[in-house]
Structure of Alanine--tRNA ligase:
Amino acid sequence: MKFTKTNDLREAYLKFFEGKEHLRLESFSLVPKNDKSLLLVNAGMAPLKPYFTGLQQPPRKRITTCQKCVRTGDIENVGITSRHGTFFEMLGNFSFGDYFKKEIIPWAWEFITDVLELPKDKLYVTIYLDDDEAYEYWTTLTDVDKTHIFRLGKEENFWEHGAGPCGPCTEIHFNRTSEIVTTAEEFLNAADEDKIIEFWNLVFTQFDGDGKGNYEKLATTNIDTGMGLERLATIMQEKNSIFEIDTLENILNEASNLAKVKYGEAHKIDISLRLITDHIRSITFMISDDVMPSNEGRGYVLRRLLRRAARHGKTLGIKDAFLCNLCDIVIRDSKDAYPEIEAKKEYIKKVIKIEEDKFRETLDSGIEILNGFVAELKENNKKVLKGADGFKLYDTFGFPMELTKEILEDEGLSLDEDAFHEEMKIQRDRARSARKTSNYMGADVNISDAIAADVETVFDGYDNDTLSAEIKVLIEGDDFAETITEGNKAIVVTDVTPLYAEMGGQIGDTGIIFNDSFKGNVCDTKKNIGGKIIHFVEVLSGELKVGDKVTLEVDRTRRESIKKNHTATHLLDRALVEVLGSHVHQAGSYVSNERLRFDFSHFEGLTEEEITRVEDLVNEAITSVTPVITDVMDLQEAKNSGAIGIFDDKYSDKVRVVKAGEYSKELCGGTHIDNTGKIGLFKIISESGIAAGTRRIEAVIGKEAYKLVNEKKDLLKEITGKFKCSEKELLNKLEQQVKELKEKDKEIVALKSKFASMGLDDIVACAKSIKDINVIAYELKDVDSDALRDVCEKVRDKVENSMVLLMSENAGKVIICAMATKDAVAKGAHCGKLIKEVSTILGGGGGGRPDMAQAGGKLPGKIQEAINESYKIVETLAK
Ligand code: SER
């Protein structure tokens, strides 16, 4: 057998199908686009769904890929079995209304027997029960042993995934043993025991299923084949497990070295090693596709895999964070097929390290707590851990629920999951939008998404702002329409347009659409799910019919501002890399006519100096008045030229590279100005964090930046006006004022304490001894009740054996406070009783304890009378 190395196998497959006129596309991102039904791409055909459903035209009718995939449905089995993994690569070839069974069956046979030289006597084929056509092609166009063909039912040989394109399939299997299988029953048994393994599934995608067993024939017949690369490598390398093939074995060996353990000696250790080997691949690839660990959606899948792997590393005795280094092996062995992992190496390592460190910090305490729970359950003969306890581990120690479950399962225990989820619900105040799966693409069907695939809409607005076009489709409300009239709001699709549809962060153009008898405003331009350009039009006058000729005109001033903002965004991207480092990658952007927003990967807030430096660099690029040139070139050529950027349109033959001299080179489909000088001025207005490891910069340019500078200037003017000084003098003046204020503060403090002590002496001086109690009754000026109480307390503490009564006029009323020392109380002093009588004189009421009382009155004019009376009142109270 040939091509035993996994990397060679991949190449052999793709080359073979290129030889059959297939367009080779790079793997799509693991993060699905426009497909809410999937968290992560789980099959080669997943990113190609719009081509099967006819929503989009494929770049060629024959495509071949090796697609990175993540599946977590069988995660419990990973490590335990020899073939389960969360990460795998799927080799696939696809036909969209082109070749069908007659071609794919002999090609598949040719590939496995001629190219791979798999022994024919080991190969078996299964077909769908009544698929006589497939049987005929297998038996007439290949030399497969007829006794090796079995007809199986819907369960085995009809491929469908919820609603959507589906069809019968034929599968190719490899017999790993020398046992001869002669009946379908024997075949199924051997497959159950892993003696015979399926490795290639050829799906004849010819129906559109509704998910309930009803099938309609698709307009075209298609082919979707899928072959797990790792599984094929296991056969080619004559191994028993995917973990023993070259690429995975390298990871596993490194993990064993780090843990100082040997593979194959102890079952538990082997499970951990296999699990780590698999998970680090998913982790590395997910991060390279910009998934960040979080408690939501795919971020949670990543977090769960990472923490699970970290925990198993710990169990193996690995002391420090290790996943952040283990990913080096994944990157080294897979970088040729997936250059993005090499390009983002430092970033991937950093994200892993941060998450791993964070988890390791709490891992020990979490395990200790969990062990405590386990002991308690066992002591009480209980089997189920309370949801609240499981949730505590999740919330406080970062234990994903599944991790807690796994550890409990090892101990023969379980978790009350319902209660756990209940706790989660209570705790979560963040709104979580549940994933909707309303149709095959997981999106709500929108009428504009149903525009036929053969409607051509071309954007020709890079160099034009006015174009003649023909009306292809009109949509009003929820229906296609033949005519739209004055007062309508409608979606208009033309064969060609100069208006840019919102994409890659750049907002859609606005403009006008007209002919001799019609005028409308284009309020926005977008793309539908199938990539058709749709104009949102408000009809101002006249009528428009399908087939009419119109002129489309872009709002030039607005477009010009958008262009400037877009070019400035490229300069900002470049400046950020220069100032912060090569780990900076674009994570999103918004480019409008008024401002720009740029999200990027970085781990901490920018310092003032960094912000200034970035701003300076962008402004230097602007003042260098550099021509901005767009070249159209091959994707590979673009990559070789060092162009950066998110590349959306990966299957076009040609890509656009926007260059601002040598400073910035970026893959971009947006519109740009022709010289950096036109941007005028660049000002950052904010820098903030939007998610772990992702920062956001908002900025303005040109007129808006000028406006911002002017606003600041006006503010400065207002300030200098208030300070009555020139701008130059302002700083000195401010410093001087601050100094003066400080001095004044000091003075105030000194004065206050002097005043307070002076006041106290005056108050104390009016003490009268009544029946051996020092009675003090005094009026304070303009104090509030807190101050009154405070002074009352001070006087009482200063004078032994005292009873103090203080009053003050406050906001037209009287506030009263009385306090007595313990020894005065022992002699009959009673603040409550005193205050009751005093407040009656003052037109109020109140009372309180013997040692302290407060009250209020309404007659400030009677304060002096109240003071005079108070001595008499004490006379009657005292013993
Ligand atoms: N869609 C099929 C699978 O996932 C063949 O590619 O197995």
Q: What stands out?
A: The pocket of serine is lined by residues 43-45, 92, 159, 201, 203, 224-226 (CB under 6 Å). Residues 429-445 have pLDDT under 50 and may be disordered. Residues 707 and 713 are 10 Å apart (CA to CA).
